[in-house]
Amino acid sequence: MIDIEQIYNEYLTDKSNKNRQERYADNEKWYHASNAGRCYKIHWYSTRGTTQDVPSLKQNRIFEMGNIIHESFQKALIFKFGDKVFNEQEITIPRLNVRGFIDSVLPEFFLEQLGITATLIYDIKSMNSFSWKFKYGLVKNRKAQSGLAEIQLGTYALGLSESKSSNVLLPFNVVEPIIMNLVNYKKDDSQLKIELAQRKCMIQAEQYWEEAKLFMQQHTMKEPMPVTTVGCPRLSWECNYCSYAGTCNSPLYKKSTGDDN
C-alpha cells in the first residue's frame, strides 16, 4: 500500500524548505517582520543563521492549513480586483533593519462611503477554537490578547509609510491613510471576524523594533547570549512556540509530550 501520510509529510517538508530558501536566502541580515513583538533573541538567532528546530509532522500540517486559508483569501481578492491587488508584497524598513511580506495590499483604493482614497492592507490569521474563545467567546472567558498581530500589522504599515523617504521602491504609490485590516479565521467551523487596527499599532511597532535593534547592538557576535534577560522572552508562553527553543535552553520551555503525528 502507498503510505499517503508519509508522502504528504515529505511534500510539506519540501515545500517549506523551498519557501524558506526563496524568501530568506541571502537576506539573513534582516529581522523578520513576522516576528514583531516577539522575544528579541529570535532576531539574534535568525541573523546568525542558527539552525531552527525541526517542526513536528503535526506542526507542518497546521502550518499548511494556515497557508491554504491565506491563499484562498488572496485568490478571492484577485478574483474581485485583478491586478489592483498585490499579494505577498515585500517591504523593508532599512533604518530598523526589518524585512517582511504583507499578505495583501490594495493601493490607491477609493472608499466611497468615506469619500477618501487610501491604502488597504490585510493580514490573515487562522485560529483554533481555543484561541478564538479567549478573543471572541463569552465575555467571562475572554483574556487580554498579546497584541502580536497588531504590532505585525503596524510594522507593515510603517514600512509602506516610510518607503518613499527610505528610497524603497514599490510597484505602487502609497497613499495615506494606511488602513490596517486583521482577518481572523476560525479553522474549526470557518467563523470569520475582520478587525480594523488602530494607528497606534504603527507607533508600537516602531518602538518595538527600536528596542530590538538596541538589544542586538548590545549583544555582539563575540558575546554569549544570556538565557533570559529583559525582553527575552517578552511573553511567558512564547518559548513553547519558538523555533529556536532547542538551542536557547530557556527554563520557560516545556517540551511537548503529546502526539506529534
TrEMBL record:
InterPro entries linked to this entry: PDDEXK-like_dom_sf
Name the UniProt record assigns to this protein: Putative PD-(D/E)XK nuclease superfamily protein
